[in-house]
Amino acid sequence: MRRTLVRAVSAVVLTLATLSTPTAHASGGAPVEVTVNARAALATVPETGLGANHAIWDANLGTNDTADLLKNAGMKLLRYPGGSYSDIYHWADHTAPGGYVAPGTDFDTFMSGVRRTGAQAMVTANYGTGTAAEAAAWVREANIVKKYGVTYWEIGNENYGNGHYGTAWEADEHADKSPAEYARHVVAYADAMKAVDPTIKIGAVLTTPANWPDAIVAEGDNGSWNEVVLATAGSKIDFVVLHWYPGALDRAGHVPDLIQLTREQIARHAGPGSDRIGIAMTEFNTGSSSNGSNTQPGALAAADSYASLLAAGVFTVDWWNVHNGIGAVTEVEGHTDYGDFGLLSSAACTSDGSVCEPALNTPFAPYHALGMMSRFARPGDRFVRAATDRPEVTAHAVRRPSGDLAVLLINTSSTTSYPVTIDYAGFTPAAGVPTVLTHTNGATSITTATTGTATSQTLPPLSLTTVVLRPAAPQTGLPGTPGKPSATAVTDTTATITWPAFKPGVKYELHRQNGAVTEQLGETTGTTLTVRNLRPGTRYTVNVIARDAGGAQSEPSPPLTFTTGTPATSTCSVRLTIQTDWASGYVAAIDLTNHGAPVSGWTLTFDWPRPWQRLGSGWSGVWTQTESQVKVVNEAGNGTLATGGTTTIGYVGEYTGPNVLPRVFTLNGDTCTLR
To answer: Sorting pLDDT into bands at 50, 70 and 90, what band is 14?
Structure first.
């Protein structure tokens, strides 16, 4: 969606919603149980993980004060020239017809700030009003003439917002505004830009799963935006670009599915070798000014989402924006929230001058959240699974190359101070008091102390807490870490897992992640293992661990995720066809075929994979939903199914998060083949 680009003199509507005075902190009662599993590895923290957006309408883009603040927060990637302005910006003369360009924001000034920050740059080439030749000339100026070494280049910004789907905020002068036209130009841009510098990486714009206009197929198109773009330009790109403004502060749980569905789209449509294509979240913000976009609730959501996205393998998450400007002013958890999506204050005032932000470059709470992230998850660290038994407290963990472990604990309760107990698998903490970093509601900095124990901490209300632990024994002489496994011959109940590492005398164990608990699926002295008794239609994430004759255990391999299918043959089969999708719901048809003995009366069942999915309505059967299970019973006129007979039923499905389609259907108790 479009974000309003706010200047200091912008007019805003002032709304004041005063919350009740916070009560004294209550005790959380029984401790929250936290589980950290160092055997269950996720993604490695990349060099470019923590990022933010700069914009050419921000006069403070290139100042030393801004660069130094970003450096102190650990920013490693800065994006330019700023959201929708990218599609009207001409770099050579530093103009953006129809938009405001602040003094001192040209490309050289931006790069000076990038270098002072110690970050890398990501540049968005102008697709909407530019050309491939213009973009190639920018690459030449940046990398050949100026030797800036800019690796990451996007082609346009949110180009699906050009009016093709009915809503327009993105500039696009092409007569054809379809995804096919965008994809053809991505190919042309990539060819022209890589002819200048073949080392650069090119990114194409995708829609984010479950965010408009994801999954919508416009008239005349051969598929959704993502399907068409990936099918045409997949062989030319190095990464895809997502933007996410969830609009609520409790959406980090959507991240694993959001990224997995994107990976599945890439694998399905981008052609051979598509596993090389990375995922960048080049704009992220909580998108919720009413709940605290620049106060502590927004900070907690920021840390939770950044950690979740990086753990899922996104190679950069870039906050919108460094400076943005004042919006609707509210009181949130005892502090003024200026409705400002920036990390730093713009010192702006409301149109009537009744409310002004604090002094220029005063950090807002999300700035401190990203500062905490840079101290918690450093480049080269490996995320490992962590979980809690209370929804008010979330947990993330990383294992450092040194063997140290860091645990990030987020208490979202505004009134309750929670004691926590931490249990570890695959890691034994050293004795002694650990180092603890904390940021609390209204705090202007992150505090560091030695407090509590490795297994017991207390979390203040609305707080971020990082516990840094050393291992009890030196991490030397361990078996080498196995390489990333791959899956072949995946059926409904079996899969063959293979990994590249091999050393005589070492035993390899295959572990399945089940939340923060691992289940050993088998072991072998070879490099291939066929696992059995898997559940049909189920997503599995596994790691390989090497263990030597003395019992020393390696670090876990990079994770592998695969999904089992349904029986190759069965007494029934189901074909699920999505007829139309509007990014929050869809109409589906189910062709149900009987391959067994004639049936007189049938019941079809399936489960929604996620709690944010539900049945809207259904037809050609009697449809009911109980908790997550959907049941369809035949109507009087279609209850008989001869051998080989087919009946078609349909439903409306509704969703408020990534739409993971049901994969397992049973007819009168038998699991059907999914066609």
So the answer is: very low
What single DSSP character describes residue 254?
G
pLDDT digits (tens, 9 = 90+) for 567-616: 999 999 999 999 999 999 999 999 999 999 999 999 999 999 999 999 99
- Number of C-beta neighbours around residue 176 at 10 A: 12
Which residue has tokens 């991505």?
186
CB atoms within 10 A of CB 17: 11
Tokens standing for residue 211: 């965010």
Is the bond leading into 533 cis (omega within 30 degrees of zero)? no
Taken in order 335, 341, 342, 347, is the CA torsion positive or negative? negative
Q: Is the peptide bond before 179 cis (omega within 30 degrees of 0)?
A: no
Distance CA 247, CA 233 (A): 31
| Rounded percentage of the chain residues whose pLDDT exceeds 70 | 96
Full-model pTM: 0.94
What local confidence, expressed as pLDDT, does residue 293 receive?
Answer: 86
**Six token digits for residue 468:** 């840094």
Q: For residue 489, give both structure tokens.
A: 């011959």
Is the Cα dihedral 179, 185, 187, 189 positive or negative? negative
Tokens for 214, please give them: 């994801």
Identity of residue 388: T
Tokens in use for 361?
A: 């470059």
Q: How far is CA 48 from the centre of its chain?
A: 15
| Number of helices followed by number of strands (H, E) in the chain | 8, 39
